[in-house]
Amino acid sequence: MSNIDPILLLSAIIIVSTPILLAAIGELVVERAGVLNLGVEGMMITGAVCGFVVATMTGSPWLGFAGAALGGALLSMIFGILTQLFLSNQVATGLALTLFGLGLSAVLGQGYIGVKGPVVPDLHLPVLREIPFLGPVLFRHDAMVYIALLIVLGVWLFLNRTRMGRVLRAVGENHDAAHALGYKVVRVRLLAIAFGGACAGLGGAYLSLVRVPQWTEGMTAGAGWIALAIVVFAGWRPGRLVLGAWLFGGATALQLALQASGGVQIPIEYLQMAPYLATILVLVILRAGRAPGSLGRPFHASS
User: What are the phi and psi torsion angles at 34 (to 5°)?
Assistant: First the structure.
């Protein structure tokens, strides 16, 4: 443990947690609208390959992130159309979306395995980055780290300070009552699903363009499922979502640091299990908030 630099560890926590945070904040909006989309993993891996392919072809990581958001949103619309217009089972459709996304990404990424993508530069903050301790921990990251936090803040403001946010929450709590008041339930839910898909795509692109950075099949490695768990841990509240993402990021960064240091004689398989075990333990110990009343229930316009 003495070989681990605390500054590097804390900085790594923020980097590791960013893709989880992006995917989780999108899923939080989807679930607050009353929809349960278990296809987050599939949308993340699709965003990862779309972002990497676009960034490699254009030489622009920012076009790559845009392509990832678009790819994730388009894939989410398959789920949205099937569940909101054809009223298919949300759980089964979400699981099928994950399997489809994993297969699609493998096909799209065949020619890009081992290819090096464009570098995503750190955001230059000349004064803040020189602050002792806080500078290297908080202010020497790429722009997507701060964009992710701004998205969380924007979602909090949207849900709690805007009329449309209150409409979305009303749809999620009781879609029949919202429909009786004249709100367009299906439209609201489709928009929420598209936003969730775009955020999941951004999270996937962060893995392939920043954290790794290269394309590898199955590189999300369960990140989408962790994002789903963190939404429950957060009680469907954006503020607690950040803490949940940092918790998982901390467990992941710590196990990677322990592997690199070689100072702890623990089998590598146990270290790799640690972040997922930590997430499960937190979910068991802490009581989650109340889920939206209409979560996972199909909406029948005639009802």
Answer: 90, 15
125: its two tokens: 């903050």
Cβ neighbors of 282 (< 8 A, separation 6 or more) are: 233, 244, 247
Sequential DSSP letters for 84-137: IIS---HHHHHHHHHHHHHHHHHHHTGGGBT-B----PBP--TTGGGSTTHHHH
Question: Which run of H or of E encompasses 143?
Answer: helix 143-161
Report whether 20 contacts 223 (CB < 8 A): yes
SS3 38: coil
Q: What's the rounded mean pLDDT across residues 169-188?
A: 95
Please, are residues 9 and 135 in contact by the beta-carbon 8 Å criterion? Answer: no
Tokens at 145, concatenated: 């780290």
What is each CA distance from 63 to 67, 104, 142, 155, in whole angstroms? 6, 20, 15, 23
| Bond before 132 cis per omega within 30 degrees | no
Half-sphere exposure of 198 (CA within 13 A, CB side): 12
What the block records as the tokens of 268 is: 């590598």
35, two tokens = 């929809």
> And the tokens for 226?
């962790």
CATH topology of domain 6-285: ABC transporter involved in vitamin B12 uptake, BtuC (1.10.3470)
CB atoms within 10 A of CB 37: 30
| 178-182: Cβ within 8 A, 24+ apart | 179/299, 179/301, 179/303
pLDDT tens-place string over residues 66-108: 999 999 999 999 999 999 999 999 999 999 999 999 999 999 9
Rounded to the nearest angstrom, the gap between the alpha carbon of residue 70 and the centroid of all alpha carbons in its chain is 15
Q: What pTM was computed for the model? A: 0.93
